[in-house]
Amino acid sequence: MSLEKKCEENIEQIASRPKNIEEAVGSHYALQVAIQTMKERCQQLQLRLETLEQENLRLRIENRKLRSDTVSNSVELQNNKGEMQRKIDDLEEKVAEFERTKSHLKHHLCMVATENKQLWNRLSHLTQANQNLGSHLSKISNTLSRHHSASSITMSKSQSPNNSFSEETSKECSDAAKEPNSPNSKVTEGVMDASLQEISLKIFHGILQNKTDLEDQCAQMVEIQSDSYNIGLECLEDDDEVLEDLKRYHNNLLKLRDQMLEQQSAMKTALDNLHHGIKGDHLCSNCKEKSKPALTEANVELEAEIESLRQWGTPDANVHSSKHLEIELMAEKICPMCGKLYGKETPFNSFQQHVSDHFTDDDETYSIINNFEVIT
What we know:
Elements: H1 2-16, H2 21-159, H3 163-178, H4 183-279, H5 285-313, H6 321-332, H7 348-357
């Protein structure tokens, strides 16, 4: 507003002073050129402010997006860490359970081994008892054979004293042989048969009893050995499967950890690059090369426009003075900001109000100072 007032005062002073028309027109055109340049500078500054505001909004939006992405990624990392911790806890519980089952199975195997030793000891005792029974049977058979031989010798000795008695006894024996149903022969044969049957029955009963005991113990040993073998195989199979599962889970957890570390490093580098890009500390060579010609072209355009304005503002001596006066009167009612033309009938106050409306203060809510945000 101060510059416009000064320009208007200068115009009034120029109009009031009695000078040559050409000098007045030249000063007027010089003032008009100055006002036009100021107008263009203000427009360029406004455009620059708009671009800066747009860039500021864009950067704030990107910053919010990055913050939301970082928050979501941190939440995902925390969730993944919690899931991994839960999996590790479950695996540790499973390992503890497997160790407990392993200890129980070891104890059971020790018990089975002791029982197996006891059974082998029993078998050894039974084999010794069987050998003893065999020796007893051989002794009994020897005694029986000796008894038969002794009885035959005694019978021969009893027949030798008297020939008559021997003849009689031989006759009696022959008679007894001829008569098998005689009472003496029946009594002797019955006593011998009863004693032999009792001995043989006792021996046979003992052998059968020992045989059944041996068969039962052998069957028990076979069952125990088969059970212990099956238990051992199951334990080995279970241990192998558990080890394979644990190895697989461990490898998967290592892969997840490597992926998480790679993502974390990539996110850190991206955030560092973004902060440096916002601050403008580090620009790549391509960006620098692209930014240089744009600045030079803008400077060239500005210089060309200023030259054209300067050439346009120089007065021509051949132009008629009346035309200059008309242009001067028309230029007094042209808005220096928007270029709107006002006629002679429009009052000066309305023209001044129109020009001052271009320089109204921004609203506090939409001002650049209030909407400014420091980005770190």
